[in-house]
Backbone:
């Protein structure tokens, strides 16, 4: 990472601008663990089409992180048996780019319906899970139960759980550790409120939430970080590509400094907050945006497919 960003990250000030340049050491780590990766300039890597998971007739994916593009649909507390059957049918017939991990997160009560009717191409996630083994916890859903229904992922620390339900950093970190220990992947959400951004605390808030995950989890192998500014969620006020990129760079920098270069490179950092079919391509072009967590627009199959396929705007000729 550039010296200036390191200084800014450690100082916690949100006032930097401009895009990141990866340091030679971070690039070296990237190159060493990917099957076939070129460094094409100081900031962007190409993931070659000779790597099976990234094969595409339209070119190779250029991004800063080394993980596969990831798009999650968070259906929140929406849907009925009928509307979900229609959504699943639309997803089953959609054409999805091969080089994207795609996950949907239905309300708990419909997970079984979704799992038994949705194509295996798309994985299923819970929207939350209990902090430990199941038992006498009225109204909760355990990690074991999510696994029993075939879920591969769980969303933890979503802002609606933090700010509407009142979940705290440490509790969320413990949930993440438990879910990982049982083999579920974790979509770990972080993000600042509007007043925090306006007070210049965006990085402080994000880093604190990130630290709670870092303090609790033994490994980042199965963690995707979702940066979701609270002011952008469900408001139609999407972050600009530059605003999102700036925080994603800072998050990757934080991981590099506080966890490891390898984790900083491998961990997908996805953006969430009013992503839709119209704005996803511009956001996806940013080199540190490794995918999306989508709420409202994930309730429409064709639009969600457009967002999944925005990976094409990251592709350059092979
Ligand atoms: P939104 O929600 O896309 O409706 O803004 C995103 C989220 O909460 O994950």
Residues:
């Amino acid at each position: 990472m550039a010296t200036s960003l390191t200084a800014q990250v450690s100082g916690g000030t949100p006032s930097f601008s401009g895009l990141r340049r990866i340091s030679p050491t971070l690039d070296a780590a990237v190159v060493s663990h990917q099957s076939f990766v070129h460094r094409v300039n100081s900031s962007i890597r190409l993931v070659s089409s000779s790597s099976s998971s990234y094969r595409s007739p339209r070119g190779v994916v250029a991004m800063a992180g080394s993980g596969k593009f990831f798009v999650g649909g968070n259906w929140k507390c929406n849907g009925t048996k009928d509307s979900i059957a229609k959504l699943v049918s639309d997803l089953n017939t959609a054409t999805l780019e091969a080089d994207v991990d795609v996950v949907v997160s239905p309300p708990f009560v419909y997970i079984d319906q979704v799992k038994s009717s949705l194509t295996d191409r798309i994985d299923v996630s819970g929207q939350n899970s209990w902090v430990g083994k199941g038992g006498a916890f009225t109204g909760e859903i355990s990690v074991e139960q999510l696994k029993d229904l075939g879920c591969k992922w769980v969303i933890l620390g979503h802002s609606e759980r933090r700010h509407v339900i009142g979940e705290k950093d440490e509790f969320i970190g413990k949930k993440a550790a438990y879910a990982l220990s049982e083999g579920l992947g974790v979509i770990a959400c972080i993000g600042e409120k509007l007043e925090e951004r306006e007070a210049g605390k965006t990085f402080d808030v994000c880093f604190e939430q990130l630290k709670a995950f870092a303090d609790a989890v033994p490994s980042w192998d199965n963690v995707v970080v979702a940066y979701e500014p609270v002011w952008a969620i469900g408001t139609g006020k999407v972050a600009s590509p530059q605003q999102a990129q700036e925080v994603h760079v800072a998050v990757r920098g934080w991981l590099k400094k506080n966890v490891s270069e390898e984790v900083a490179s491998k961990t997908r950092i996805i953006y969430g907050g009013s992503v839709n079919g119209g704005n996803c391509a511009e956001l996806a072009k940013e080199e540190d945006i490794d995918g999306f967590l989508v709420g409202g627009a994930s309730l429409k199959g064709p639009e969600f497919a457009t967002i999944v396929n925005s990976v094409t705007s990251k592709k350059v000729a092979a």
User: Anything to note?
Assistant: The two ends are 27 Å apart (CA to CA). The pocket of 2-phosphoglycolic acid is lined by residues 74, 228, 233-234, 272-275, 293-297 (CB under 6 Å). The longest strand covers residues 69-74.
